[in-house]
Protein backbone atom coordinates (compact mmCIF):
# COMPACT_ATOMS: atom_id res chain seq x y z
CA UNK A 1 0.00 0.00 0.00
CA UNK A 2 1.24 3.46 -0.79
CA UNK A 3 0.59 6.59 1.22
CA UNK A 4 0.93 10.15 0.07
CA UNK A 5 -0.17 13.54 1.26
CA UNK A 6 -0.14 16.88 -0.41
CA UNK A 7 -1.04 20.37 0.64
CA UNK A 8 -1.06 23.90 -0.67
CA UNK A 9 0.06 26.98 1.20
CA UNK A 10 -1.97 30.10 1.77
CA UNK A 11 -0.85 33.19 -0.11
CA UNK A 12 0.69 36.18 1.57
CA UNK A 13 -2.59 37.96 2.29
CA UNK A 14 -2.28 37.23 6.03
CA UNK A 15 -0.14 40.29 6.65
CA UNK A 16 -2.73 42.52 4.98
CA UNK A 17 -5.48 40.93 7.08
CA UNK A 18 -3.49 41.51 10.27
CA UNK A 19 -3.12 45.19 9.39
CA UNK A 20 -6.84 45.45 8.67
CA UNK A 21 -7.73 43.84 12.01
CA UNK A 22 -5.36 46.17 13.88
CA UNK A 23 -6.92 49.16 12.15
CA UNK A 24 -10.40 47.98 13.11
CA UNK A 25 -9.27 47.58 16.73
CA UNK A 26 -7.88 51.12 17.04
CA UNK A 27 -10.80 52.69 15.18
CA UNK A 28 -13.31 50.99 17.52
CA UNK A 29 -11.35 51.93 20.63
CA UNK A 30 -10.82 55.58 19.71
CA UNK A 31 -14.30 56.08 18.33
CA UNK A 32 -15.91 54.64 21.46
CA UNK A 33 -14.24 57.45 23.42
CA UNK A 34 -15.67 59.98 20.98
CA UNK A 35 -19.09 58.35 21.43
CA UNK A 36 -19.00 58.78 25.19
CA UNK A 37 -18.34 62.51 24.83
CA UNK A 38 -20.89 62.86 22.02
CA UNK A 39 -23.54 60.91 23.94
CA UNK A 40 -23.19 63.20 26.94
CA UNK A 41 -23.32 66.35 24.80
CA UNK A 42 -26.38 65.19 22.83
CA UNK A 43 -28.15 63.71 25.88
CA UNK A 44 -28.48 60.43 23.97
CA UNK A 45 -28.48 57.26 26.06
CA UNK A 46 -28.50 55.23 22.84
CA UNK A 47 -25.15 56.68 21.78
CA UNK A 48 -23.67 56.12 25.25
CA UNK A 49 -24.92 52.52 25.17
CA UNK A 50 -23.34 52.12 21.73
CA UNK A 51 -20.07 53.46 23.14
CA UNK A 52 -20.08 50.64 25.68
CA UNK A 53 -20.84 48.22 22.86
CA UNK A 54 -17.88 49.56 20.86
CA UNK A 55 -15.62 49.07 23.87
CA UNK A 56 -16.75 45.42 23.85
CA UNK A 57 -16.08 45.28 20.12
CA UNK A 58 -12.55 46.62 20.57
CA UNK A 59 -11.81 44.02 23.24
CA UNK A 60 -13.27 41.24 21.10
CA UNK A 61 -11.32 42.34 18.02
CA UNK A 62 -8.14 42.55 20.14
CA UNK A 63 -8.72 38.93 21.16
CA UNK A 64 -9.33 38.02 17.52
CA UNK A 65 -6.02 39.63 16.49
CA UNK A 66 -4.20 37.57 19.11
CA UNK A 67 -5.89 34.38 17.94
CA UNK A 68 -5.12 35.19 14.29
CA UNK A 69 -1.42 35.55 15.14
CA UNK A 70 -1.44 32.24 17.00
CA UNK A 71 -3.26 30.50 14.14
CA UNK A 72 -0.54 31.62 11.70
CA UNK A 73 2.23 29.73 13.54
CA UNK A 74 3.91 26.78 11.88
CA UNK A 75 3.02 23.23 12.85
CA UNK A 76 4.83 21.56 15.72
CA UNK A 77 5.21 18.00 16.99
CA UNK A 78 2.40 18.73 19.46
CA UNK A 79 0.08 20.50 16.96
CA UNK A 80 0.76 18.56 13.77
CA UNK A 81 -1.88 20.45 11.77
CA UNK A 82 -0.64 23.82 12.98
CA UNK A 83 -2.64 26.40 14.92
CA UNK A 84 -5.31 27.40 12.40
CA UNK A 85 -8.13 26.18 14.63
CA UNK A 86 -7.22 28.66 17.38
CA UNK A 87 -9.01 31.34 15.34
CA UNK A 88 -12.25 29.41 15.90
CA UNK A 89 -12.04 30.15 19.64
CA UNK A 90 -12.29 33.89 19.09
CA UNK A 91 -14.98 33.34 16.41
CA UNK A 92 -17.09 31.66 19.08
CA UNK A 93 -16.46 34.50 21.50
CA UNK A 94 -17.26 37.16 18.92
CA UNK A 95 -20.53 35.48 17.98
CA UNK A 96 -21.56 35.31 21.62
CA UNK A 97 -20.62 38.98 22.06
CA UNK A 98 -22.85 39.82 19.09
CA UNK A 99 -25.78 37.92 20.55
CA UNK A 100 -25.29 39.67 23.90
CA UNK A 101 -25.09 43.00 22.07
CA UNK A 102 -28.33 42.29 20.24
CA UNK A 103 -30.12 41.58 23.53
CA UNK A 104 -28.66 44.78 25.01
CA UNK A 105 -29.90 46.77 22.02
CA UNK A 106 -33.43 45.37 22.42
CA UNK A 107 -33.45 46.21 26.12
CA UNK A 108 -32.22 49.72 25.35
CA UNK A 109 -34.96 50.14 22.73
CA UNK A 110 -37.60 48.95 25.22
CA UNK A 111 -36.38 51.46 27.79
CA UNK A 112 -36.59 54.23 25.19
CA UNK A 113 -40.30 53.44 24.79
CA UNK A 114 -40.90 53.49 28.55
CA UNK A 115 -38.81 56.58 29.31
CA UNK A 116 -38.54 58.71 26.15
CA UNK A 117 -36.00 61.54 26.25
CA UNK A 118 -35.52 64.60 24.13
CA UNK A 119 -32.26 64.35 22.24
CA UNK A 120 -30.22 66.76 20.13
CA UNK A 121 -30.99 65.40 16.68
CA UNK A 122 -28.37 67.56 14.89
CA UNK A 123 -25.63 66.21 17.14
CA UNK A 124 -26.92 62.67 16.60
CA UNK A 125 -26.82 63.24 12.84
CA UNK A 126 -23.19 64.38 12.94
CA UNK A 127 -22.10 61.43 15.05
CA UNK A 128 -24.06 59.04 12.82
CA UNK A 129 -22.25 60.28 9.70
CA UNK A 130 -18.88 59.95 11.46
CA UNK A 131 -19.82 56.50 12.76
CA UNK A 132 -20.84 55.31 9.29
CA UNK A 133 -17.57 56.55 7.82
CA UNK A 134 -15.33 55.02 10.51
CA UNK A 135 -17.00 51.61 10.77
CA UNK A 136 -17.71 51.37 7.05
CA UNK A 137 -14.05 52.03 6.27
CA UNK A 138 -12.91 49.37 8.78
CA UNK A 139 -15.44 46.86 7.38
CA UNK A 140 -14.23 47.37 3.80
CA UNK A 141 -10.56 47.15 4.82
CA UNK A 142 -11.07 43.72 6.41
CA UNK A 143 -13.34 42.55 3.57
CA UNK A 144 -10.80 43.52 0.91
CA UNK A 145 -7.79 42.22 2.86
CA UNK A 146 -8.59 38.64 1.79
CA UNK A 147 -9.39 39.45 -1.81
CA UNK A 148 -6.26 37.87 -3.28
CA UNK A 149 -6.46 34.53 -1.53
CA UNK A 150 -5.77 31.84 -4.10
CA UNK A 151 -7.39 28.94 -2.31
CA UNK A 152 -10.34 27.12 -3.88
CA UNK A 153 -12.13 27.18 -0.55
CA UNK A 154 -15.45 28.78 0.23
CA UNK A 155 -14.05 32.22 0.84
CA UNK A 156 -10.94 34.19 1.62
CA UNK A 157 -12.03 34.81 5.22
CA UNK A 158 -12.21 32.27 8.00
CA UNK A 159 -14.97 32.28 10.60
CA UNK A 160 -12.94 34.59 12.80
CA UNK A 161 -12.72 37.31 10.16
CA UNK A 162 -16.38 36.83 9.26
CA UNK A 163 -17.32 37.40 12.89
CA UNK A 164 -15.29 40.61 13.01
CA UNK A 165 -16.85 41.86 9.79
CA UNK A 166 -20.26 41.10 11.26
CA UNK A 167 -19.31 43.16 14.30
CA UNK A 168 -18.45 46.12 12.09
CA UNK A 169 -21.55 45.58 9.94
CA UNK A 170 -23.62 45.77 13.11
CA UNK A 171 -22.04 49.13 13.89
CA UNK A 172 -22.59 50.39 10.33
CA UNK A 173 -26.27 49.43 10.41
CA UNK A 174 -26.61 50.84 13.91
CA UNK A 175 -25.29 54.21 12.82
CA UNK A 176 -27.47 54.13 9.71
CA UNK A 177 -30.44 53.71 12.05
CA UNK A 178 -29.20 56.59 14.20
CA UNK A 179 -28.88 58.77 11.09
CA UNK A 180 -32.39 57.92 9.86
CA UNK A 181 -33.78 58.33 13.35
CA UNK A 182 -32.07 61.70 13.78
CA UNK A 183 -33.57 63.01 10.54
CA UNK A 184 -37.06 61.77 11.40
CA UNK A 185 -36.88 63.07 14.96
CA UNK A 186 -35.66 66.45 13.72
CA UNK A 187 -38.63 66.90 11.36
CA UNK A 188 -41.38 65.10 13.35
CA UNK A 189 -40.31 64.82 16.97
CA UNK A 190 -41.17 61.07 16.91
CA UNK A 191 -38.56 59.79 19.35
CA UNK A 192 -40.00 56.25 19.26
CA UNK A 193 -38.69 55.77 15.69
CA UNK A 194 -35.20 55.22 17.08
CA UNK A 195 -36.40 52.31 19.23
CA UNK A 196 -38.17 50.61 16.32
CA UNK A 197 -35.08 50.81 14.11
CA UNK A 198 -32.88 49.55 16.93
CA UNK A 199 -35.04 46.45 17.45
CA UNK A 200 -35.01 45.67 13.72
CA UNK A 201 -31.22 45.90 13.54
CA UNK A 202 -30.81 43.85 16.72
CA UNK A 203 -32.91 41.05 15.26
CA UNK A 204 -30.95 41.13 12.00
CA UNK A 205 -27.59 40.99 13.79
CA UNK A 206 -28.83 38.29 16.18
CA UNK A 207 -29.89 36.13 13.25
CA UNK A 208 -26.53 36.46 11.48
CA UNK A 209 -24.57 35.97 14.69
CA UNK A 210 -26.51 32.77 15.39
CA UNK A 211 -25.81 31.52 11.88
CA UNK A 212 -22.09 32.28 12.22
CA UNK A 213 -22.03 30.58 15.63
CA UNK A 214 -23.64 27.45 14.18
CA UNK A 215 -21.21 27.39 11.25
CA UNK A 216 -18.24 27.78 13.59
CA UNK A 217 -19.45 24.89 15.74
CA UNK A 218 -19.85 22.77 12.60
CA UNK A 219 -16.21 23.40 11.72
CA UNK A 220 -15.12 22.44 15.24
CA UNK A 221 -17.17 19.24 14.95
CA UNK A 222 -15.41 18.47 11.64
CA UNK A 223 -18.49 18.49 9.47
CA UNK A 224 -18.03 18.36 5.69
CA UNK A 225 -17.60 21.91 4.30
CA UNK A 226 -20.66 23.21 2.48
CA UNK A 227 -18.75 23.73 -0.77
CA UNK A 228 -17.56 20.10 -0.89
CA UNK A 229 -19.88 17.41 -2.33
CA UNK A 230 -18.48 14.06 -1.17
CA UNK A 231 -20.89 12.02 -3.32
CA UNK A 232 -19.86 13.90 -6.45
CA UNK A 233 -16.19 13.60 -5.47
CA UNK A 234 -16.50 9.84 -5.04
CA UNK A 235 -18.27 9.48 -8.39
CA UNK A 236 -15.52 11.40 -10.19
CA UNK A 237 -12.76 9.49 -8.39
CA UNK A 238 -14.24 6.19 -9.58
CA UNK A 239 -14.01 7.47 -13.16
CA UNK A 240 -10.21 7.63 -12.97
CA UNK A 241 -8.63 4.85 -15.05
CA UNK A 242 -7.30 2.00 -12.91
CA UNK A 243 -9.44 2.64 -9.81
CA UNK A 244 -11.88 -0.11 -8.86
CA UNK A 245 -13.04 1.13 -5.47
CA UNK A 246 -13.08 4.28 -3.37
CA UNK A 247 -13.74 4.22 0.38
CA UNK A 248 -13.01 6.01 3.65
CA UNK A 249 -13.41 9.50 2.23
CA UNK A 250 -13.12 12.14 4.94
CA UNK A 251 -13.26 15.90 4.37
CA UNK A 252 -13.22 18.58 7.04
CA UNK A 253 -12.02 22.14 7.52
CA UNK A 254 -9.39 23.50 9.89
CA UNK A 255 -10.72 27.05 10.14
CA UNK A 256 -13.61 27.35 7.70
CA UNK A 257 -11.44 28.23 4.70
CA UNK A 258 -8.59 25.67 4.67
CA UNK A 259 -10.00 22.21 3.89
CA UNK A 260 -8.41 18.82 4.58
CA UNK A 261 -9.32 15.46 3.04
CA UNK A 262 -8.24 11.83 2.95
CA UNK A 263 -9.23 8.89 0.77
CA UNK A 264 -8.45 5.19 0.23
CA UNK A 265 -8.29 4.13 -3.42
CA UNK A 266 -8.22 0.48 -4.54
CA UNK A 267 -6.50 0.00 -7.91
CA UNK A 268 -6.72 -2.91 -10.33
CA UNK A 269 -3.87 -5.40 -9.96
CA UNK A 270 -2.97 -4.99 -13.61
CA UNK A 271 -2.54 -1.23 -13.23
CA UNK A 272 -1.02 -1.11 -9.77
CA UNK A 273 2.40 -0.22 -11.20
CA UNK A 274 0.88 3.06 -12.36
CA UNK A 275 -0.04 3.97 -8.78
CA UNK A 276 1.89 7.27 -8.85
CA UNK A 277 -0.03 8.52 -11.90
CA UNK A 278 -3.32 7.49 -10.30
CA UNK A 279 -2.33 9.24 -7.09
CA UNK A 280 -1.54 12.47 -8.94
CA UNK A 281 -4.91 12.33 -10.69
CA UNK A 282 -6.66 11.85 -7.35
CA UNK A 283 -4.85 14.81 -5.80
CA UNK A 284 -5.70 17.05 -8.77
CA UNK A 285 -9.34 16.07 -8.53
CA UNK A 286 -9.45 16.74 -4.78
CA UNK A 287 -7.97 20.20 -5.42
CA UNK A 288 -10.76 20.78 -7.91
CA UNK A 289 -13.22 20.01 -5.10
CA UNK A 290 -11.73 22.74 -2.84
CA UNK A 291 -9.54 20.42 -0.75
CA UNK A 292 -6.27 22.19 0.10
CA UNK A 293 -4.50 19.37 1.97
CA UNK A 294 -5.11 15.84 0.72
CA UNK A 295 -3.91 12.44 1.94
CA UNK A 296 -4.20 9.47 -0.44
CA UNK A 297 -3.74 5.78 0.37
CA UNK A 298 -3.33 3.52 -2.65
CA UNK A 299 -4.39 -0.12 -2.14
CA UNK A 300 -4.57 -3.20 -4.34
CA UNK A 301 -7.46 -5.61 -4.81
CA UNK A 302 -5.51 -8.34 -2.99
CA UNK A 303 -4.56 -6.17 -0.06
CA UNK A 304 -6.91 -3.33 0.74
CA UNK A 305 -8.52 -1.87 3.82
CA UNK A 306 -11.92 -3.56 3.49
CA UNK A 307 -10.36 -7.02 3.54
CA UNK A 308 -8.85 -6.36 6.96
CA UNK A 309 -11.94 -4.55 8.34
CA UNK A 310 -9.87 -1.51 9.24
From TrEMBL:
The chain crosses the membrane at residues 20-41, 47-67, 88-110, 122-142, 163-186, 192-210. It is found in: Membrane. Residues 225-300 form the Cation efflux protein cytoplasmic domain. GO terms for molecular function: zinc ion transmembrane transporter activity. Keywords: Ion transport, Membrane, Transmembrane, Transmembrane helix, Transport, Zinc, Zinc transport. The keyword Transmembrane applies. One of its GO terms (cellular component) is plasma membrane. Residues 23-221 form the Cation efflux protein transmembrane domain. It is a multi-pass membrane protein. Its main location: membrane. NCBIfam families: CDF. Belongs to the cation diffusion facilitator (CDF) transporter (TC 2.A.4) family. SLC30A subfamily. This is Cation transporter.
Amino acid sequence: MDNHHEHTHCSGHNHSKQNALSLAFWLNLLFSIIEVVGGILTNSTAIIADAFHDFMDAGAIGLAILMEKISGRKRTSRFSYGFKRFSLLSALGLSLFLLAGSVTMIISAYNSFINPKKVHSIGMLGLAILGLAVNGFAFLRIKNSGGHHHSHSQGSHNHNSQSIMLHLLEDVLGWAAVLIGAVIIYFTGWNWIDGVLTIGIALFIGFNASKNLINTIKVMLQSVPENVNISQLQTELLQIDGISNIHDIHVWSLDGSYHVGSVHAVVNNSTSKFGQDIMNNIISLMKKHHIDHSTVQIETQDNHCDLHNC
